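Reading group handout, session on sequence-to-structure problems. Before we discuss, look at one worked example. The prompt was deliberately terse, the way you'd type it at a terminal:

> structure ATP-dependent DNA helicase

The input record follows.
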Amino acid sequence: MKKALPLKGGSAGSRHGTKSPKELESVLKQYFGYSEFRGRQLEAIEAVLSGRDCFCLMPTGGGKSMCYQIPALVKTGVVLVISPLIALMENQVSSLKSKGIPAEFLSSTQTTANKNKIHEDLDSGRPSLKLLYVTPELVATSGFKAKLTKLHNRGLLGLVAIDEAHCISTWGHDFRPSYRKISSLRKQFPDIPILALTATAVPKVQKDVISSLSLQNPVILKASFNRPNIFYEVRYKDLLDDVYSDISNLLKSSGNVCSIIYCLERAACDDLTMHLSQQGISSAAYHAGLNSKVRTTVLDDWLSSRTQVVVATVAFGMGIDRQDVRIVCHFNLPKSMESFYQESGRAGRDQQPSRSVLYYGLEDRRRMEFILRNSSSRKQQPPSSSTELSEKTLADFSQIVDYCESSTCRRKKIIESFGEKVQPTLCQRTCDACKHPNQVASRLEDLRRVPNSRFNKISPVFKTSSVDPKHFDTEFWNREDDVSRSDEDISDSDDEEEALSNVAISKLPSKGGFEARLEALERAENAYNQAKGQTKPQGGNLVDKKSISQALRDASRKRLSGALGQAKLRLEDLRFAEEASAAHLETECFKKYQKVGKTFYNSQIAATVRWLSSSSSEQIHDRLEALTNQSTDHGAAAGSSPCIIPDALGEAEKPAVATVSHKFAETEPSDEFAKTVVSTEHMEPSKMSPPEKSIGEEGRRDRTIGTMDLPKIPSFREFMSQKGRDRATSSSRAESQPRGVPRKAGPVISKEGGTGTSKKMKL
Ligand SMILES: Nc1ncnc2c1ncn2[C@@H]1O[C@H](COP(=O)(O)OP(=O)(O)OP(=O)(O)O)[C@@H](O)[C@H]1O
Ligand SMILES: [Mg+2]
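And the output record:
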């Protein structure tokens, strides 16, 4: 392992770190090339070097990392950095290594060989490591706790830094249950300073962080939230002819600069990426529906400028340090001002002029209100009552709505939302409301005139709705939902199961881009289909670890049910029992992929979700009807109720899902199933095989729904080409669409399948 460079003019550090500001500045210069400290960096560094706990609130891109990186260089021992995202750890570690600073991270994505090297180094008399990045999950394990205690007993634990510390608070915008697990650190290491860092914490969250971590008499440092180099702007979707075109024009007219576009849903990420790619804009989608290796490639390509625009869900970006992001767009309304600040704050970390453009739509507002109204019931919420949280959630949301629907200074609105006082002269025409007040006022007037506008009112629409909240499959929900973590959570779960599945994925080409990965997956899938009937390797740990757990199956069913519910909302005229239908769809994926493991299974679930997000009601109806017919014709086992619900069917008559899923879990797949089920094929409805009313003798042996020849689910590649064709069709329709008619969230799939050519998406 690389040794730290010797510091100019002295030793590599002292136990108590008694360094003068000048000496600290020379360390900054030597390793990072900066001539002076920014904001409150020096105070934070001095606080922890003197052994004090410290709570540090600095704006996004303000340089919080330096507050523990400099102490790591001047103190004896290792600085432990707790971070919520693997991508963030990887990013920081590789940047530190490039500067000759010995840093490592421990996570499920690390190879065993690397992990062993790190552990050997920590166990050695004089570890060469200066910074060790870990996940909160790992810190909570007894094995790692013991390792830390050993390190501490040898006087080699220098500091514990907790990055993105707001994640520990249920009141914060990004609460992560795993952060709760680190609250015992203060007790465990009473003499080691703890440094808590965040960019986004309102006063209540600040207090919560300090008390949750039991910081002792901490030095509290707060810098202004103002980001003077970001120009803030709101555009109104309901007043635009075509939002996609507006975004591509914005990107083109800015010279295809490095940008991030945030969307609420994965399907929108894929869809918008396709549109931008067709417009010649180098772009890639990033969301939790893609496997971790694909996400890493997307991130690498973007960090190294091979891709200019990332179209992402909130899964992307926390702490990602690309300095020259010039534009951050919100394609959908964020859930709070804190989220908006954090996400828009990824622009201009190099302090150069940058833009935040939020696309505000009345429909988005309505949907987000609905999501938030129901989200508290899904949260794990130790200290607070759900009513309190739900009220807070809605109050937070109303702040961002106010930001969009008001004609006063945007900058002032942002800063004041964090409880900071603002001088009236602060903005200096660096937001649209201050720069073009008349234009903004007139747009707001136009918005009021949009038909059925619920402008300035709390939408009543969902108060009476019978729609179930779980229909919305958004990333910020999934992140909070530990059950669905297996493939939803971008943040690390340090369990070995995940680690092993990653080892399996790592056999895929790592540098060949998405197409190469897709081909490798397809080859593996074909190989599997050819080798069907072969017996599973016995006893191998790896095989067991790749197995699809019941929890994962339940989570997948939930996800499919959510996607079905969304489809129902999107298309309105659909009628089916979501949970029974979800159970059928999940079983299809399970039966097909249980032998090859959860990676393929997850991909198939994701493909089905994508298909649901873009299919027409006819397509979905046909497919579910096929499932219903098959289960009826073949006398499916009790509990596998029909998917299609007659109009008059009441709540009480809906199928009992628990029974359905239990039944499916027990059903052993037959080899016949493998013969009859086709691999991921077409999505064009016209080419889908019609529901079979009868099946051959072979199929009859197994009387469960699983033996049917189900309609095909598109692969990702097919999905994207279909999208291309649909886009071409719908954009020709959009030309004739009247101004003021908002674009539909989902593409309209032409019955004919469309004739447009699809340009390959760059990923
Ligand atoms: N004193 C300094 N002078 C100039 N640049 C600096 C200084 N300190 C840090 N930076 C640079 O500022 C950028 C942002 O730093 P950093 O990633 O630590 O921000 P952050 O506060 O953690 O932001 P976020 O909240 O988004 O994670 C980095 O590229 C870093 O190298
Ligand atoms: Mg940071």
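Points for discussion. First: The mean pLDDT is 72. Second: The longest helix spans residues 550-571.
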